[in-house]
What does this fold into?
Amino acid sequence: MRKGRDGGVAAAAVQTNTAIRQKSVWERMKKCWQLYVFLIPALLSLIIFSYAPMYGIILAFKDYNPLDGIWGSEWVGLEHFIRFFNSPYFVQLLKNTLIISIYGLIVGFPIPILLALGLNYVRNLKFKKTVQTVTYAPYFISTVVLVGILNIVFSDKGFINQFITMTGHESILFMGIEKYWRHIYVWSGVWQSMGWSAIIYIAALAGVSPELHEAAIIDGASKLQRIRYIDLPAIMPTIVITLILNSGAIMSVGFEKAFLMQNPLNTGVSEIISTYIYKVGLISSEYGYSTAVGLFNSVVNCILLLTVNQVAKKMGQSSIW
Amino acid sequence: MSVRLVSKEFKKQSKSDKAFDIINHIFLILILIVVLYPLWFIVIASFSSPNEVAAGNVLFWPKGFNVKGYAEIFKYEKIWIGYKNSIIYTFVGTAINLIATIPAAFAFSRKKDLVGSKFLMLLFTITMFFGGGLVPTYLLIQNLGLYDTMWALVLPGAVSVYNLIVARTFFDQSIPYELWEAATVDGCDYAKYFFRIVIPISKPIIAVMLLIYAVGHWNSYFNALIYIIDSAKQPLQVILREVLIQSQNVTNMTSTSMDTLEAQRQLSEMIKYGVIIVSSLPVLVMYPFVQKHFVKGMMIGAVKG
It folds into this structure.
C-alpha cells in the first residue's frame, strides 16, 4: 500500500517543474541537515581509512620506490601478477586457503543451526541459559590466548596427550604435524564461535509464532516434524543470508590465527594467502608484489560473493541486495 | 510460553519425541563439556603444583594448591605496562567507535527523512567487502604520521559497518515512529530527539556495541604488531604472544643445572596458565553485566540484519 502511494508521489514529482523539484530536494536536505552531521564521524573514518587506501591499489601495477612515492613510481603493468601466478607458491597458497575455509564453512556453518534448534526445544530455562552463557564465552577470548590454549592443550604434557598415554599409546606432537593442523584450525574455530553464531538463529526462532507450534502439536506432529516444517522454513532467510556472507569471506581467512599457529614444521599447510601477503609485504618489503597478491585475493572474494548472491536470487531466496 | 502450556496438556509424548529429547539433551551436554572443560583446565592448572600438572593428576580439581605462577606474573613488569596500555587503547578506541557508530546508525534509521540514504549506505557497505589491502593501508598510516602512535590502533576501523547495520536495525524496529511525531509536536529537532529520547531507551544496543568494540580493542594484536615499534607502547596481547606462543622467558632464574632447568620449565608453564587468566579477567568481569543486554540487543538488531 505504502509503496504504491510513494510511487504516485514520485510520479507527480516528475511531472512538476524541474527547478521546483530540485529546490524541494534541497529543502528536504536542509531540513535534515542534523542527520548529515551525525554521519560525519563515520564518513570521515571511512573516507580516510577505507577509501584512501584504495588509491594505493595502483601499487599492484608499479614498482614501488619510496623516494618517488606511490604515483611517481614506475609502471610495470601486470608483472607482479604474472610473477605470482608462475610462482611455485601460487597453487599451494590457493589450495591451503581454500581447504581451510571451505572445510571451516562445511563444519562451522551447520553446527550453530543445530545448536539453536536444540536449544529451542529445551524446556528447563536454567539449563538453556547455562548452555547459552557458556557457549558465547569463547567468542570473547583473544586469538593470542586461543592459540596459547591450543598449544597447552595439545602439548606433550597437555590433557589430550594425557588421555592418549593413559590408553597406552604414544603421545603425539599435534601442533608440529601437518596432517593435524587443519583439523585443529577448523575445530578450534567451531569451539570459539558456535555459540555466538547461534544467536542470530536463536533470535529468528524466537520470532516464530507459537500458534504454528500449537496447531502442529494438536495435529499430532512430532518434534522432528515441527523442526522440518515450521522451524527450518522460518529461519531459512537467515540461513541463506548468513551463507552468502560467509561465502563472501571464503578467501579472506583470518590472518591472525593462522599466523599464530604457524611454526616451521607446519608451513606446508599453514601458509595461506593472507600470511603470505604479510610476509612478502611487510617483512620483505615487496610492496608492489604484496599489493598485487592482495588485489587478486579481494577480486576473487568479490566474484564469489556476487555469484553466491546471484544463485540465491535465482533460487527465489532472499539476497543481500 | 504457550508452547509449554500446550505440551503440558499433551502429557503423553510420543516415543519419537522422547527419543528426540534425550538425544537433544545429550548433544547439548556434550557441547557444554567440550566448551567448558579446556577453560576449566586452565583455571585449575594455574592453581596447581607444576609437578602434578605434568604428571597428569590435575583433571577436575586443583592439586597441590599454589600461586607461584601468579607471584611470578606480578613481578613481571612488561605485562603490567601492556595492561596499562591496553586499558588506555580500549577506552579511547571504544569511545571513538561509539561516537562514529551510534549517531550514524541513528541517521540511517531515519531513511525516510535522510536524502540520499541509499547512496550513502552503499558507500558504507562496499567497504565491508572491498578495501585497499595491507600494504596501501600501512603506507597510509605512515604518511599520516600515525606510525608508532596510539592513533594507528584506535582510528582505523572506527566504524564496523556490520555493527552499524545491527544498531540501525535496532533503532528502526524498537523505536516507534509515533515517538518522533510526538517529539516534533513539542518542537524537538533530531539532535534533541537523539540525545533526550533515543539514547536513554537504547541502552541494550549501546551496551552490546560497547562490549563488542571494547573486547575487540582488548583482544587485538595485529595492528600493534605492524604499527608499534616502541616496546613501552605495546598492548597486552603483544606481550602475551611473547609469553604464550614464543615462550619467552619470564622468570629471572638463570641456571644450568638440570634440576633447576626443569623447575624453570615447569614454572614457565605455570606462568602461561596464570597469564591467560589474568589477561582475560577484565572481559570476564564485564561479560555477565553486559550479557543480559546483548542477547536482547543482538536479537532485535540481528533478526533483519
Observations:
- Chain A touches chain B through 103 residues (CB under 8 Å).
